[in-house]
Amino acid sequence: MFGKEITIKSPQEFYIILQNENYSNSKLNPFIDRIDLFLNGCPCDAELYWEQTILEYRKINKIDLSDLKNQLKCDNINWFFEDLYLGQS
After folding, report:
1. Which of 17, 53, 58, 63 has the fewest Cβ atoms surrounding its Cβ within 10 A?
2. Is the separation of the CB atoms in 25 and 67 below 8 Å?
3. What is the pLDDT of residues 56-68, one digit of tens each?
4. Torsions phi, psi of 62, nearest 5?
């Protein structure tokens, strides 16, 4: 359709894309809630929030993000975390 792929390499990068695109999808709420806590919550719990963020981020490639891909004008999103390929959506 668009012939374009996007590569996302970190939870923070994805979070910035969501904010820049003003995109919302209720299936992403667990991820957004965790990364919000990591970024804005108590620093004393940052490590716990980061672990929870990573757990949610690793599940994102299983969510149907067709509407986000249309908004970004891309066919595929390649998901990575710390150079580990997580999959494509």
Report:
1. 63
2. yes
3. 999 999 999 999 9
4. -90, -10
Edge-to-edge order in the sheet of strand 84-88: 5-8, 76-81, 84-88
Nearest-angstrom CA–CA distance, 52 and 35: 8
Question: Is the full-model pTM beyond 0.85?
Answer: yes
CA dihedral (66, 70, 71, 75) in degrees, to 10, reads 90
What is the token pair recorded at 84? 């580990």
Q: Quickly count: other Cβ atoms within 10 Å of residue 62's Cβ.
A: 12
Residues belonging to the chain: 89
Contacts of 83 (CB under 8 A, 6+ apart): none
